[in-house]
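Memo subject: From amino acid sequence to discrete backbone structure tokens
Keywords: amino acid chain, backbone geometry, structure tokens, three-dimensional fold.
Body of memo: The sequence and its backbone structure tokens, given next.
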Amino acid sequence: MKHILLPTDFSENAWNAISYAAQVFKNDVCTFHLLHTYTPVIYQTEFVMMNTSQLELSDIIRETAEKNLEKVKQKLLNTFPNKNHEVTSILAFNTLINEIKEQVEKLNINYIVMGTKGATGASEIVFGTNTVHTLNNAKCPLIAVPENFKANPPKSVLFPSDYGVDFKDQHVSTITDIVNSNKSMLNILHVSFGYELSYKNLRRKNMLETMLSDTNFKFHDHRDESLENAINVFIKKNGIDLLVLINNKKSFFENLFFRPFVNKIGLHLEIPLLVIPSFKNQSS
């Protein structure tokens, strides 16, 4: 049984991510946990104690959110009927980031699937603040779905790697679960800059190959002056519809991607991004 957390603010963007999750995990037995948080800006404890109208307003906000959450739940059940799926609702007076953290631990969440906000005037800002923060700090795999992406299950997946990570079962199973369930092609891309793989990294590549023995995959080796450019070109040339990254502080992705890529968004992604966190007991 998989547990999938689906944050929603009742926008079309959020519904698109929910639709994506329903299709990606259509062959899996899982529970979708719809999550909505609310924190009225005007809510202040000291003021509420002296003004009952504030309490009334908070009740109205909660009641409206409950109704909207129930509408999303019914829409999900009606649009994507699936005997393997259950849907629950979570409404919390909390910040989204804090509530996600609490629910991930409480419900043993396997994946978070959430929408991105899109450009807000500055061309380099593609993901909203909540998405960026969750991408950087999530303790479980997270799929960020661009708002204009047509929600279809992935058929061609890209996993760039410098083989600088000792791949763990948690890393690989997260990828193979989705790839095998959707009968996708997994493309592992290594971009070199004029040097050969070290013995340690070659060993890691061979280990990864063994761990993917039951998966449809291909290795690709490209030379390029820019890793970002190599990934962009590969995505467009090969019809990639899901990009996978491991957020590991000991890998080059920590500096190359998770600050300039996630915070500045060097790659203007038009496809979903699956971020797999580093795990405890990760060896060097």
